[in-house]
## 1
Amino acid sequence: MEVIHTFLNLAAPPFTFFTLLLFLPPFQFFKFFLSVLGTLFTEDVAGKVVLITGASSGIGESLAYEYAKRGASLVLAARREKSLQEVAERARDLGATDVVVVRADVSKVEDCRRIVDQAINHFGRLDHLVNNAGITAVAMLEEIEDITDFRAIMDINFWGYVYMTKFALPYLRNSNGRIIVLSSSASWLSTPRMSIYNASKAAISQFYETLRVEIGQDVGITLVTPGFIESELTQGKIMNKEGKHIVDQDMRDVQVNVIPIMNVESCAKAIVRGATRGERYVTEPTWFKVTYFWKAFCPEVLETMYRLFYISDDPREAIGKKVLDYTGVKSVLYPETVQFSTAHASIMVMDLVNTFLNNSLPGFSIHAFLAFFPVYLCYKALYYICRSVFSQDLAGKVVLITGASSGIGEHLAYEYGRRGAYLVIGARRENALREVAENAYWLGSPRAIPIRTDVSNVDDCKRLIEEAVNQFGRLDHLVLNSGVTSVSLFEDIPDVTNITPAMDINFWGMVYTTYFAAPYLRMTKGRIVVIGSSVSWLNEPRLGFYGVKYLFFVFVRVFNLRSASKAAVLSFFETLRAEFGSDIGITIVSPGLIESEMTKGKFLNQDGNIVVDQEMRDVVMSATPMESVARMAKAAVDSACRGDRNLTFPFWYEALFLIKICFREATDLFQRWFFITEPGVSAREAISKKIIDLPLLKDILWPDSIRSPKIKTN
């Protein structure tokens, strides 16, 4: 196994480079040709049925008007019925053939079922589902008074979309319809004070990227990532640190900063135009695409800019806020609809500003990148060498590890133990934890304390941190490893609420533990080590709810929810980097396939039960080489001691990231062909399963440790 991974680590980078050099130009030309065809043969939505959530204001309201102008029949849903009725009346005047209003809260699964049922009962069909409902929270993680109040962000922004899609998908299949997903550029931008919001949008994006592979061409998906658009959100309507919904325009100025706000009507028109053309992605204003480019290649640059313009002891004293207040630039950048003051910009001025940026910023960014990137790479190389020379000594440090009863967490405990660290290890299986603690002690840990913990329970997370600090008086490393994998095609899940543990453990478990640990980590200039997953960027089917934990070939069937949860984790901690600065280091580890109970076949199935299913494991993982858990643990601890920001292990997985970004459509087609079977055909007939069943292939690619279905019990 080590020889295979060494070969791939050496061969994958040059192979990827030559693949991009050879195939990227013709592939981009082909995409351009398809986009031209899309502009010539747009969908006529006249008479079609469009369901829009969050339609009482902002983007949802303007989308209703834009569809109405094109003659569509509308189903409008939101919590404010009076506002909905006003929107419905204007939509009728603009040309909507019929409008149905449904008062509902999308965070409630039964309300989502009722919305879809009323649409079908009234119209008998559904053509477009527009998932738009959302709320924003603005608060530093450490300032939040009760972290559980912020679950509402994920309940509405993520689960509301999932529930609506679950109930609408059968009808959309019948009509070869389309899902329009209002995500956000926040899914890749790490704006401080918006960690939970950013995470919810990243989860949305990853969930629908995975769903594309699962449903194929039967239902189109248009993923919309707007920047700042005039709406109630940019008027200052936020959830504050106390969990209350308020209007705070000063805090709005801090968060929007010196970024132009786009006219909502122009945005809605672009979204509907993109959807009717069958576009996979719509970003408005288009210049926001540049920020993705910089985030991907120079994340430290954006992080530094955020800390410069957004962070200060008093948010209203932030540099970005002062620039707005003292220069009068707000009158150019913000339209009148989002301001209560007399200083505002006209829609014409706003359109001119965004048009100028759309035309000039991409070219400017390319030239700046070409000039700056070589210097940036040299700086990173030198900095890496310095970190390697002055690596942290862990002897006597206090390390807390969650999910430490088996797999990666267990071997991280052993690796920290060998280096003389004091350990506090948490998991649900107490007997297994005690065995790990005893082994870590004999390997060199001065003391290892096992604490039975369920990280999905906020009180357990608080108790875990308090006991660690009470025992040792400090905390130096927090290692977040707990996770569960759900494996099922989205449409096969009978009750989607069965899969909520994937988000509760994989995301909220990490959020809760970090929330309680952050004050103690600040005191020691400590570090958070986040065990994510390569699933956060590889959209494997059946892994939509999981997110970052497995590999390119493992994403097809299982991880719809897990990929979403791990993408949320990645976004959350990327945002915390900007909030914490140099006070708390963060190392994000993205492992590929590692020997563990998960790679033995331990999954959360479609009924919400933990099972060991090695045949489904074979379907999902196929002929992917598996890495040793001991080697992975050593690499993770080495990386944390060096102070690395990110670690991908094995290294060759990074090549998959480049291929995924550059050939999204091609990789989606491959994954569907490789992992998905025709309706009515068992998943065990997938090509991925047939390949791994070839003689001797498992013996070559997989270690003996994962052959047995036996897992630890309590």
## 2
Amino acid sequence: GRKGLKKLKEAEAKFVVGGMHSFKSVEHSGLQTLAQTCIDIGARCGKVDVRDIWYGRKSIRDECDKKFNMYKNQILKEIQKYAIERTLSATTDLWRDDAVGRYYLDFTVFWIDDSWRQHHALLRCKHFEEQSKTAINLWAEIESIFNEFNLIVGDTPITTDEGANIKASLKNEIRLPCMAHRSSTTLETAWEATRIVCPEFDQLITYVSELRAFIARSGNIQTRLPMTIKRNSATRPWRSYYIVYHSVLISYDKLIDVLSPMYEESRILAINKNLLLNVVELMKGFVPIFNSLEFSTTPTIHIVVPSYYAMLAMAQLNGQERPAIKALKENLQTALNEKYNQSIMQIHWIATFLDPSFRELSFVSDKSYRTTQLKSIKDGLILMANDIENEKKDLIDNSTDQQPPLKKARTEVSIDPFAQLRSSSSEPSKLNIKDELSAELAQYSKLSFSTTSTSANPSLLLLDFWRTNEKRLRLLAIIAKRILVIQGSSSESERHFSAGGVIVSEKRSRASASTVESLVVLRECYINGQWPDCSSEDDKEKSGSQNNSTTLTPDIVSL
């Protein structure tokens, strides 16, 4: 009744206050599931004291270790099919926790299932000693993960950042650059180049930095502002160029009111508001591009090339820019060509072509270059189609080799007396692989595709397109699944590092490296709906409990 609900509300308040939890924590599905489990036990067993059935820290730590091992076995079985079919890719990156200073290697895999839906799973967040962070030892760690999960060495595309050690460790693998990091490098290069040639722009950056430092020291300003003055994003720096300056712009006028009584209004007035507005408006256009490159449940590799052309278009001069913005745009154009465009690979162009909304490459204004790229894409598709055909032949040969020898028939087959009267061929001749692909490409160019739906992400519509046309475009569909599963960035690994930074805090600095890994991985599998199925384990425990003496009541055991 009402009295019980009042006690519940009070208990939730005590949970927040006593454990220094956020108010949002009481809305977490995990806490609600925990409460529901207690209610279910009470409904079946009658009123019980929760302290009699509650597990302590050691038991839960052991449970997490157990679940981690169960999860690894579960995900191993789930991804095997896709690894064999080569419709699985990976991202990997290094992370160092600030509390203890340990290094961890993140390894995440992605796959597209038979229904053309993309999934991802964090396999390991593996710790290794700082002094062993060399290319050789990095590869040894990565290779151990390949072996643990039966992945195909040399045939699993991996997207990483441009770190020298990790690049060197994957020199013999199919490695693609993280284009979100390349975007960040592009902006950083243009940003710093503009500071050098434009004093007005340099002053803006300096004054904004000094203002943020002052606000951080003061400690009583942020709560009075319409938007918190943001910090740089350490794990995803490409976001910082917009969010920091946007937060200052939104709070600009209020900061004058707040700082004036402190006689510190010069800190905000020194910032040229018009230039700040121009910078925010320019950087705002980059935000949706960065967001698209960070998706993990939909393809991203096909937007790498269009992203370059979209950013290049935003950096074009219109003749009305103030000198600082003109310099910034010019430096953006240079950095885009030298930093971003130089990292684009042929596989990115093929992925773009496999999106029917981009297949004509109409965004490429240079017709000669467009024609060259379309020819190169077709040549690449032919090579991939040949690989698929060779794989098919190898599979047939291996299957034949494994078949037991056939017994010789007791009587020979009689000669067909009507052979001369029959058609020489009752089946249509089969096209060779190149002709088959050409026929599919011709058909692909005529198929309609629309991205006008407001109910779905265009990348989801892309997967729906290939699911619908999978049988009609047999070869292209196989290639599309293998290509579109490759990630355009390693942003998913960055998200894991953000979570790891919360888990490994000063208050939890005594947690072992193996415990940290189990917590990071299990958090990800919980969010992705991949929590290990424990029904079989429960059956084993139930059977064991019935065969052994126990202090638990029969009602509790039956749960």
